[in-house]
Amino acid sequence: MPSPMRFLALAALLLSASAAIVPPAHQGVPNAPPSDDTPAPTPDNAVIVETAGQVDQKSGAPIDMPPDAAVPPTAVTAVDGTLTNATIADVNAANTTRRRDIGRFGKRTPEFEQVFAPLSASEHDGSIQGTAYLTYTVVNNATYNVQACLDWCATVNGCVFVNLYYEFNNFLLDFVFSEKSNLKCAAYGDIHSAAEKLNTGGQASYPQDGNKTVPLTFITQSSGWALSSLVDPDTPEGYELVFGPTNGANNAPGYMGFAFIDKYDVDACAQLCNGRGADPNGGGCAFFNIWRAVVSGVPTTYTCSMYYLVADVSTAVNFGQGDLVVTLSRGYARKNLVIDGGFEGYAACDDFCFTESYANWIGTSAPGGDMDATIFNFIPYAHTGHSVALLGAAFGDDALPGTLTPAAPLETKAGAHYVVQAFVISTFSGAELEKNANVSILWNGARVGGVTGFMPWTFVQATVVGTGSDKLEFFGGAAPAWSFIDDVVVYEGPAV
Ligand SMILES: *[C@@H]1O[C@H](CO)[C@@H](O)[C@H](O)[C@H]1NC(C)=O
Ligand SMILES: *[C@@H]1O[C@H](CO)[C@@H](O)[C@H](O)[C@H]1NC(C)=O
Ligand SMILES: *[C@@H]1O[C@H](CO)[C@@H](O)[C@H](O)[C@H]1NC(C)=O
Ligand SMILES: *[C@@H]1O[C@H](CO)[C@@H](O)[C@H](O)[C@H]1NC(C)=O
Ligand SMILES: *[C@@H]1O[C@H](CO)[C@@H](O)[C@H](O)[C@H]1NC(C)=O
């Protein structure tokens, strides 16, 4: 136990150390590492184009598979320039009624138009090798049964195009499968042209019979039929459509990378965005841009580009390069349940001011405390923009924690999963005085996450479950161990 004299000396020392710190309310200069002024990255279009030149997503109905297979889940064929073959765990979507019904067509009967006519029955023809192949069926071959094929397409989720053709010398169609029909109807999630009639058969399907020549498969009367107008996709859960369709892909800052998927599936892009690892400086995925790459007139791949900043149509100015043309570009922003999570709504002055509360956020001090949770309009303190929140007495006149909460409860969906994300910095008073800095994230009063210690701007997140109306709070600060908080979001979806 220190002697009274030593104790007094120690106390005086601590007092003078903290007295040297000019508190935020007096516009003190933070003892922070230099801020990262690297510009936010934009898409590397050369990598996207190069990868589009490597990927092969073209296929058609196989000769050795029975008809009426379930449409496989959307596959990822490339991630950030590296080819892959991965599926997206589509758990959420599989549970929504929206994906189960044939929602693309609603209740109306789809109308189809012929894209290309069949060659005459006596000529060899070719079937489509194209992107977004879904599945196939066989229809009654007593006639060239176009209507049965179109009717079937309307029952296949995502079908916008069918290729109808006879396939001869396919042993399974002729003798094994119960339908006893060689009139194949292949469904696609994209529209194809006669230029893509690249499968002309030539495969051996019949078993070898002694020394007889095995007859090879061949195709006749291949026609293509497409929906007369492409139906707008449903907006994915937790997102809103920002723009599209246009013929320009985004060239916007805050780029996090891209993936190719094997069909135009906005839900799949949303899942990729939800699952994308956060950028340490920019935060979680906040926006995606889906577009179709058409190379030399032929649909080739479907790109999902992901961003931590929300972009809009003003930056959707990449129309393609070389043989690659951008089509069907749409932008979707992730819905942030927090109103004004960046505190930019507090703009009561040009340069420097602070407040305990304003329209969107409320700061509350501990009993006996003074200005323990505040909002500052002062660019040097902010992570982005001009405003930021502070935990810990703004004047440094008490060491009590403050509580910061949105002015209104968050309108969640009961039972849905959410992720709370924010940036926190605890460097203001230097490493020693900030070593016990402590910020907690509270959800309906329960601590769900937080950070402690001296730290530069740090991305923090916590997962929560909605109840329908939820209270988010940031709690902490013990001046001079101040912490600033900025760029708060609450998104539907998992933590990343
Ligand atoms: C991708 O993987 C699936 C499942 O393993 C497989 O069935 C499919 O043939 C693969 N596709 C390619 C193009 O390799
Ligand atoms: C989806 O349904 C399955 C089976 O009913 C269930 O186990 C799973 O938790 C559900 N997923 C979501 C996200 O609701
Ligand atoms: C219909 O398909 C079956 C099975 O492939 C075949 O045996 C039959 O000859 C076909 N009929 C016509 C009219 O093409
Ligand atoms: C095919 O086999 C039969 C009987 O096994 C034989 O008579 C015939 O000469 C063979 N033909 C050829 C071209 O080898
Ligand atoms: C930070 O504060 C919370 C809430 O008061 C507390 O539960 C937690 O233990 C503290 N963490 C540290 C490292 O002090």
Structural write-up:
This protein has 496 residues and is mainly beta. It is 11% helix and 33% strand. It is built from seven helices and 24 strands. It has helices at 4-19, 45-52, 91-95, 97-100, 146-153, 171-176, 266-275, and strands at 75-79, 82-87, 112-116, 133-138, 161-168, 183-188, 218-227, 239-246, 255-261, 287-295, 298-307, 320-321, 324-334, 353-355, 361-365, 373-377, 387-391, 402-406, 417-426, 438-443, 446-452, 455-465, 472-476, 483-492. Strands 1, 2, 8, 9, 10, 11, 12 and 13 form an eight-stranded antiparallel β-sheet that branches. A six-stranded antiparallel β-sheet has the order 14-16-17-24-19-22, with no helix packed on it. The radius of gyration is 30 Å and the shape is elongated. 44% of the residues are buried. The model is unreliable at 1-18 and 90-108 (pLDDT under 50). The structure holds 2-acetamido-2-deoxy-beta-D-glucopyranose (5 copies).
Gyration radius from CA atoms, angstroms = 30 Å
Task: Note the gap between the termini.
Answer: 48 Å
Count of DSSP-assigned helices? 7
Biggest pleated sheet: 8 strands, antiparallel
Q: Roughly how much helix do the residues carry, as a percent range?
A: 10-25%
Organism: Mycena belliarum
Keywords: Signal
Signal peptide: 1-19
Protein name: Fruit-body specific protein a
